[in-house]
Amino acid sequence: MRKKRLLLIDGHAMTYRAYHALPPMTGPSGEPVNAVLGFANMLIKAIEDYRPEYVAATFDVGLTFRHQEYAEYKATRAETPDDLRAQFDRVNQLVQALSIPIYTMEGYEADDVIGSLARSAEAEGLETIIVTGDSDTFQLATDAVHILTPGRTSREVALYDPAAVRERYGLEPGQLVDYKALAGDSSD
Question: Whole-model pTM?
Answer without folding.
Answer: 0.88
